[in-house]
Write a structure and sequence with these properties.
single chain, about 120 residues, alpha/beta, TIM Barrel, 3-stranded parallel β-sheet, globular, disordered C terminus
């Protein structure tokens, strides 16, 4: 999707989720919140593919209201652990919770990961 798409129509079109790709599209991480908030109460869940495995991008996407995160270029268990830590609040990780009140999201995603 690109920023000029009417997200509210797609969110009720029968899809299980809508993916906002901030790695390979025109979406910027700071553009997500208004579109994700229009999906509240809709059938589809908002998922975000962040541009990199960086805690600030993961936290921003979750605080904007994403219900799932796709993290690119995770090749080691240490990289996977870093992504999971970014999805959790203190004391389990270093993420704060200041953005949750603004986005209406009260809890982070419980991340499950499996590294071969």
């Amino acid at each position: 999707m690109t920023p000029n798409v009417d997200v509210s129509i797609l969110a009720d079109a029968g899809y299980d989720f809508l993916l906002f790709d901030t790695q390979h599209s025109a979406w910027e991480i700071k553009q997500l919140q208004p579109s994700i908030q229009t999906m509240r109460g809709k059938q589809a869940a908002p998922l975000v593919r962040v541009a990199a495995n960086q805690a600030y991008q993961i936290c921003f996407a979750l605080d904007a209201g994403a219900r799932g995160i796709v993290v690119p270029m995770v090749n080691t268990s240490a990289e996977a652990e870093a992504a999971v830590r970014a999805c959790r609040y203190f004391p389990s990780a270093t993420a704060g919770n200041a953005g949750c009140a603004a986005s209406g999201v009260s809890s982070r995603i419980t991340a499950i990961t499996s590294i071969p």
